[in-house]
Amino acid sequence: MKTILILIITALAAQPSAWAQSDQYKQAMKQAITTMQSRNEQSPIADMQTSANQFERIASAEPKEWLPRYYAGLNYVYLGFMGKDEAAKDKYLDQADVNLKAAETIAPDNDELAVLKAYIAQARMVVDPMNRWQQYGPLFQAGIDKAKSLNPNNPRPYALEGSSLMYTPDQFGGGPTTACPVLKQAVEKFATFKPTSDLSPLWGQKQIEPLMAKCK
Amino acid sequence: MKLIYFLTVYLLLVLTAAAQINLSGRITDTKGHPLPGANVFLQGTYDGANTDSTGTFRFTTSRKDTATLLVSYIGYESYTKKIHTNTTAPFIIQLTEAANELNTVVITAGSFEASDEKRMTMLKPMDIVTTAGANADITATMNLLPGTQRVGEQTGLFVRGGSGEEAKVVIDGMIVQNPYFSSMPDVQSRGRFQPFMFKGTSFSTGGYSAQYGQALSSVLLLNTTDKTQNEGISLSLNLANAGISYDHATDKSSISATGSYGNLKPLFALVHQNIDWTHVPEFGGSSLTYRLQPSKTGLLKFYGMYSDSKLGLNFIDPSNETGKTALQQHNRNFFTTSTYTDNWADGRWLLNAGLSYSFDVDATTYNGIDFGRSSERWQGRAVLTRLLPANNSLLFGAEAHAITMKNTVQGINYVLHDNYGALFIESQTYLGRNLAIQLGLRGEYSSILNRANLAPRLSMAYKTGLYSQVSLAYGQFYQTPDYRYLYLNRSLDFERADHLILNYQIIKNKRTFRAEAFYKNYAQLVREFTGQPGMPTQYDANPYRFPWGRTNNGGHGYAQGFDVFWRDQKTVKGLDYWVSYSYVDTKRLFQQFSVAATPTFISNHNISVITKRYFEKISTNLALTYTLSSGRPYYNPNRLEEGDKGFLADRTPVVNNLSFSASHITRIRKNLVVIYASADNLLNTKNVFTYRFTADGKTRYAVGPQSYRSFFVGGIVMLSKKAKVNVNEL
To answer: What SS3 state is found at B657?
Structure first.
């Protein structure tokens, strides 16, 4: 009888269709997110690309899920900060835009996607700030404002806006005096924010910790 | 036990069905170099892998039969292929590089792009405001570019042997009737538009697109911004002008309003004037911009401005017994343009449409005698572009203008009305990524001339290397003669110029080198005969004269030369400098000339060196500009006996100028403050632009700049916490 039971379990487990689609999705996403979280600014570009590719593959298999596109886009934003020259950075950000657009068609008016949009604009600006602030500055702010209005509890627009202000020189309207109140709001919101699922975006809290040190 | 047997068989079947199939292969570029990090996967499945450092991939799949293999790599065209998963042979796949700014040729002959959107730019709006000696004036900055001549006492753009009348300023496709403040005798006027209104500036030195006409030598294309950059109120104050502006943007729309009052008294108190002002220039102006996004793709822009200015001066006029003529001028100018842009079918169809109205009234008197003039222009324009695969495109469009001009000359009123229409078509064809051809045709009709013309345009470019290319442009260009001739003679024809331009450029690592050679043929130029029929024409050097003589289209001429440009933003960190040199050799038989000669607005050699550097620690931008122009011909009545040989045979001395500007950014009570200062003609050189003679030829007057060494200071305060400004926005 024991043998039969084992065989039944094995048989069921072995059958591909017995794996619920969403389980496979969740597992793949969890694995990809864990890998992504193990990376940082010092990680080689190749590793970041690997993560981006991984999410794009999941996106291809799950055309109804916006999160794989979101994470792929986020990876390309990181790559956009890391690229070796202006042309390379823009190429990564072009791909971030492709993923953002795809995600937006699946989930229109999503606060996290509005944050991503602002993030892309910021990365574009950083490529050549002197000449690009005019074009991308307002786009960045529009994304931040939209995210705040879509979900006032989401801490990420505050974290992104605050860190952007912190890195903006005083005379351009940035610096700790303007950045800290925004960052404080972000910290408060992180304390109460509940992600909708365990696959939901989580970044921001750790990133602003070193900045908060300047706010004392 | 039957059950065990059944289950075992089932399990075997399932396991066989789920048997993993190995897929492997190698991804390279078209030259066979491996592409590491490419994404290789079966569409719609979780099965896939990245390529390793040798471009090799390997993954397993449980998919049976067929699947779609997809390969993507940043900067390359994606690859898809239907495959059989039972294929055991490794896949060898070559990806083609996607078209981008670096690997695709762009037609550059005769055009100087200055836009934000493209990376392959040489001049950006920011450059206009940070250039010393240009005083944040668009035209003044363009005059530092290769292919231009600096003509200190006249207004406009003088391009490759062309006069200021031969260049047109175009905003969002609409011709601007009066782009400059009213011209005064011997004083260069500024442009009416602020550089930061525009997201991109494209300056053509010839051979320009069939989309534009009515300019024998050049068009300056200005495209307004799509959104306001600021939010809130800002105040500005300088030695000449006080202004206020307000910007506000919402999700779908934005508005900008400005108002200003100017009076040059404070400046003139500080800087000695070479001009005898009787009414120091005084002006007031306002503008309103409204932008609305009615749909996801559409954008409606409205821009309107009104300005009013008054001035009076006594200018040197040797033809007058006192040697001076008193000028009084009151100018009122109104300009409005509305444009609508939209696209359909995923951007494959693009529409640019616009409507514009302007009027300009100059109440002018010379020694109390009425020389008033006015102009009015309605224009409409629509351009439809069809984008085709592989960067190819086809555009066609139409424009219509209704123009009314009035001129009073010593009590006589001249009026004329012209209906002008044009149709144009242009195609852009890429033969691979290395060769592009643009073919255009423009047809025009003018009711006052009652004539039509047909002008072909051609330009092409070939990529000679990763960073370099050669371009060629050819075209015919027509322009309605100066309206002052048409008051008296309506049988005149269009004037014509033919351009041939060859260009080489290499852009690498933030360094640009560019060389251009050109030949221009002028035909059907208007000639004026002031003498009795059969008698020699008496040359009148007075530049403000009204052309009362008989006229025909018998004039002609040529201009040839080359220019070189070098810009380097790389060698010294933070330092941006560029050098340009232009050479032109030209002769014309036109206006009152009885023999072909080099016109008075021509200097054969023009050199400019522009440097600027931003010092981050002190938040200050410093800029230095040096310009040199060789002497220009002037009319000397004492050489009349020499006949044709003595005509415009003299040259003025070399003109040179060193100027400096600085801007500093700071915060006062949380408000952003920008302070700027500039000095023009640091060396206090006594430049001479031209000479004028008394009627007897005995006395010579020098015409020079409005002032020699001069200074200017000012500042801007942004009364808003949200205000964001770049240090260079001045």
So the answer is: strand
Of B3, B116, B666, the CB nearest to A135: B116
Q: Which of B681, B688, B684, B626 is nearest to B654 (CA)?
A: B688
Identify whether B153 is part of a domain: no
Indicate the residue of A50, A63, A178 with minimum beta-carbon distance to B37. A50
Q: How confident is the model at residue A148 (pLDDT cuts 50, 70, 90)?
A: very high
Record the tokens describing residue B402, joined without a space: 């209704």
**Residue entry with tokens 């036109």:** B590
- Whether A23 has its CB under 8 Å from any CB of chain B: the answer is no
Domain final residue pick, B95, B114, B136: B95
B475: domain CATH number? 2.40.170.20
Residues A169 and A132 occupy one common structural domain: no
Please enumerate in sequence order all residues whose Cβ is within 8 A of that of A43, keeping only pairs 6 or more positions apart, or say none. Answer: none
Please count the structural domains in chain B.
Answer: 2
Residue contact A134–B672, C-beta within 8 A: no
State whether ipTM is beyond 0.85: no
- Does one domain contain both A109 and A77? yes
Burial class (CB in 10 A: 0-12, 13-18, 19+), B618: exposed
Q: Is the dihedral of CA B108, B111, B116, B121 positive or negative?
A: positive
| pLDDT the model gives residue B22 | 85
For the segment B357-400, what is each residue's pLDDT rounded down to a tens digit?
Answer: 999 999 999 888 888 999 999 999 999 999 998 778 999 999 99
Q: Tell me how close the Cα of A23 comes to any Cα of chain B, in angstroms.
A: 12
B-chain CB neighbours of A53 within 8 Å are 37, 39, 48, 50
Please check whether residue A22 lies inside any domain of the structure. Answer: no
Same domain, A134 and A166: no
Q: In this complex, is the C-beta atom of A13 within 8 Å of any C-beta atom belonging to chain B?
A: no
Same domain as A181, residue A96: no
Q: Which residues of chain B have pLDDT under 50?
A: 13, 15-17, 114-122, 723-730
Q: Determine whether the interchain pair A60/B100 forms a contact, defined as Cβ–Cβ distance below 8 Å.
A: no
Q: In this complex, do A60 and B11 lie within 8 Å of one another by their Cβ atoms? A: no
The total number of residues shown for chain B amounts to 730
A-B contacts (CB, under 8 Å): 116
Same domain, A135 and A177: no
Predicted confidence (pLDDT) per residue in B206-245, tens digit: 889 999 999 999 999 888 888 776 778 888 888 888 999 9
Best B2, B35, B46, B511 residue to mutate vs chain A (most A CBs within 10 Å): B46
Q: For residue B693, tell me if it sits in a domain.
A: yes
Q: Do B74 and A95 touch (CB under 8 A)?
A: yes
- Domain containing A183 equals 153-194+203-216
Which residues constitute the domain of residue B79?
20-95
Inspect the interface and report whether the beta carbons of A87 and B101 lie closer than 8 Å: yes
Subunit contact A10:B728, Cβ cutoff 8 A: no
Q: Which of A15, A58, A138 minimises the CB distance to B229? A: A138
For an interface test with B, the pick among A8, A9, A53, A133 (most B C-beta atoms closer than 10 Å) comes out as A53
Minimal CA separation from A67 to chain B, in Å: 15
- A60–B44: do the CB atoms touch at under 8 Å? yes
Domain boundary among B53, B71, B95: B95
Distance (Å) from the C-alpha of residue A188 to the closest C-alpha of chain B?
23
Residue B101: per-residue pLDDT: 66
User: What DSSP string runs through B714-730?
Assistant: EEEEEE-TT----TT--
CATH number of the domain within which B85 lies: 2.60.40.1120
Residue where the block lists tokens 């067929």 = B66
**Total count of domains within chain A:** 2
Identify the closest residue of chain A to B18 by CA–CA distance: A16
Half-sphere exposure of B339 (CA within 13 A, CB side): 20
DSSP 3-state assignment of B34?
A: strand
Q: Closest Cα to residue B367, out of B405, B399, B433, B321?
A: B321
Is residue A211, in this structure, part of any structural domain at all? yes
Q: Does B385 fall in a domain?
A: yes
Residue B127 maps to a domain: no
